[in-house]
Amino acid sequence: MADVVNLNRFRKQKQKADAKRQADQNAVKFGRTKAEREREGAIAELTTKRLDELKRDDE
């Protein structure tokens, strides 16, 4: 006799694998690492802070 296969489980595994494959492609195409995003955010914050410190109050 053949083994019984749960088709719902097979379908869900296939969907999960497809989603993972798509996510990996998007990460390569668009993504940056978390460290890169945090570093750029920190640099932008420091730049903004520095510019605010250099502003004159001419009012």
From TrEMBL:
What Pfam families does its record include?
DUF4169 (PF13770)
Stored InterPro entries: DUF4169 (IPR025227)
Instruction: Tell me where on the tree of life, at the top rank, the source sits.
Output: Bacteria
The scientific name of the source species is Marivivens donghaensis
Protein name, per record: DUF4169 family protein
Residue ranges, annotated region (Disordered): 1-27
